[in-house]
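Spend some time on the protein that follows and explain the fold to me:
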Amino acid sequence: MDFNDSPEEAEFRRQVRAWLAENTSEFSAYDYDTMSDEEEVALCRRWVARKAEAGYAAMRLPRAFGGMDATPMQCVIYAQEEARYKLPFNYFGITLGMAVPTLLTFASEEYKAALLPRVLSGEHIWCQLFSEPSAGSDLANLRTRAEKEGEEWVINGQKVWTTGAHLADYGILVARSNPELPKHKGLTYFFLDMKSPGVEVRPITQIDGGAEFNEVYFSDVRIPDSQRLGEVCEGWKVAMTTLMFERQAAGEQSLGLIDFEDLFRTVLGIDLTDGPAIEDSQVREKLVDWYLIQEGLKYFGYRQLTALSAGRPPGPEASLGKLLEARGAQAAAGFATDLMGYEGIIKDPALAPCGGAHQSAVLQAPGIRIAGGTDEILRNTLAEKVLGLPPEARNDKALPFNQIM
């Protein structure tokens, strides 16, 4: 395990720090906690355009398309340095981390030239239309239909949990084009204009009050065949490529869900019936648990970075980090709010201890254990790919999809 940058990485870090110091002051001056979503999206568009001018918006892209042919480690270094600044929420995460690399791999040169510059200018936001009510962890179970009519495809069905669909200009979509083939074989992959006739987006209000997820309905939506990515009925291969880009982008950043220092400060400010919480042996034991989890995740992250620095992609063991961090964050948030007693039910930032941060985490953390791979999926990955255990039985894998609906 290597804890230090190589000379080349150290020089790149110096360049990134200098650029960020020169370009972030305008954006760090805003109070994003009191800003409307529309205002923050507008600032995010400007920030993406600013980064794109220097090649930092989509670093892994070739220079000809606005990137810098960056290595995974360079992407990590930029993410680490940018995290030091208060900046608008990244509404372009899916756009730049998933949609753009997929377009670059599969779209025609004409579409690349037309669409990629409008992303890097901050004009276009994309969403990922994958999950459905009956196809979450088992994406190949999706039922949205794509039927060919001449040089067009007609799309009917529903997607759900689509992040940012209410903001998106375009989307990447997987649909079932042949129900007579096994479920992994009969899928085709497209991109579409989210303003197309027949597309309806319905925001979902979450338990924490947010509404970044959406239901999306397709009623006779027409997509030109030229907007198909990959071959007909080979959409699963394209989807796996997209998810590979997602995992690569996720591997370049820590989730940052467990903040031991913040938890420790919270405990220092709480008094129990028999004295300060910090003097309670069970409380101190819990704090040690969170500290060890955070430190373990930190060194696990160093191990992943060592692989990236050596030019090796993160392996399936990367699932362990997300599994432990999401579970630990939920438990730590619940522990903090339990210690607060009645104040633990107050979420209003103006009234709640610590601005209601732990209360918000209690509501958000369960969803993190689902998004980007459920706990169960991550455990299967670790069991099969790391420990070499036999895979689960998948009796429907070779059956035509219309026989298992």
